[in-house]
Amino acid sequence: MVEAAVKAPATNRWLQLVAGIVCMVAAANIQYSWTLFVPEIVSTRGWTRASVQVAFTVFVVVQTWLTPIEGYFIDKYGPRVMVLVGGVFTGLSWVLNSYAESLTALYVAAAVGGIGVGCVYATCVNAALKWFPDRRGLAVGLTAAGYGSGTVLTILPIAAMIKTSGYQETFFTFGLIQGAVILLAAGFLRAPSKTEVVYSSTVAQSRRDYTLGEALRTPVFWIMLTLFILTVSGGLMAVAQLGVIAEDLGVKHINVDLYFFAMAALPFALMLDRILNGFSRPFFGWISDHIGREKTMFFAFAMEGIGIVALGTFGHNPWAFIILSGVVFLAWGEVYSLFSATAADTFGSKHIGKIYGMLYTAKGFAALLVPLANILMEATGTWTTVLYTVAAMDLTAAFGALFVLRPMLARHHRLNAEAAAAAASTTREVPA
Known about the structure:
Blueprint: H1 12-27, H2 29-32, H3 34-45, H4 49-65, H5 67-77, H6 79-99, H7 103-131, H8 136-148, H9 155-165, H10 167-186, H11 212-216, H12 219-249, E1 255-257, E2 262-264, H13 265-291, H14 293-314, H15 318-332, H16 335-347, H17 352-367, H18 369-380, H19 384-429
Antiparallel strand pairs: 1-2
Helix pairs in contact: 1-7, 1-8, 1-10, 3-4, 3-12, 4-7, 4-17, 4-18, 5-6, 5-7, 5-17, 6-7, 6-10, 7-8, 7-17, 8-13, 8-16, 9-10, 12-15, 12-17, 12-19, 13-14, 13-15, 13-16, 14-15, 14-19, 16-17
């Protein structure tokens, strides 16, 4: 492959990474703390659980399916403007939730949150991919970790405030806080220049920048999208339904004794899950920088599938519920670092905002399965059917990554290298 001439990366890129992580932490509550509000909303308003969970689906669908459009605006206006807009919408979403007295209002607030978090998430991941092509797995993993584990410090305060002040006041207060933090961190963001990046020496990376249209015409894009949908479904269902699953398995209010203090199984599981979910993103991203994306995918996806089967089998025990839900989140969180890094490796970084935006719509498709999980559970009377179905999807993706995606990517990079070599040869043969 033809190497581009570059300068050493600027130390300023680490400030960019930290600012992006702070933004992601502040935006994380809308998705990852939602499960704490659902029982209180159902109890206060008398709405059905399934109808309330539609708001979660609306949020995820809006967040993901608008990402390609947001990618276009990232390239046009830069990261700072996009994150400022995202901060306003992210804070506004929970303020609107605090006043929502109808399901329609709840759904509108969810859509506003989807726009806000989409702007923040897409921009910060885009920035990590562009600033760190030599360490894409690690950099985007750390950025995504901010989103995956950003609520670890707010789970207990939010749960306590819901109990003492009600869910409406909690929505309002934390909405203002998270919006303000994003606005402050956005001021540090900027895009890198062409001379501030270096490429990886261990992972095959395209030196050709594909346009969105060119990427969509490659079979490898659609294979990645399919694998993304298969793997993201299980973790997304667990995020939205973990509190419900804990209640149905009979472990939600059971205290586990840690010798120096006791805590109910659900909040303890949520705290552990946030930590492991965040840890998995830079950890598996770092591994993929060294052994390759597809091998890492196989290991992680297989772990998730096995963990979900075990959760359905042994989850009635509170300790097993805590540990196995942690395994599921550990193996699931890495999808957001591996697929984004793989997309940039495959299609270049110039148009990665739009290209990964299209790939990220996998999360929106998977979100449509969240309400279906409730319907399937009610039809069968057990969560086991749901969990086994999702586990089968994860295992299918694991083998697909190793035996389908890996050879396709090898061929993709080989053809790019041959085309680049042919172009260079032609250039040398043209008389001066």
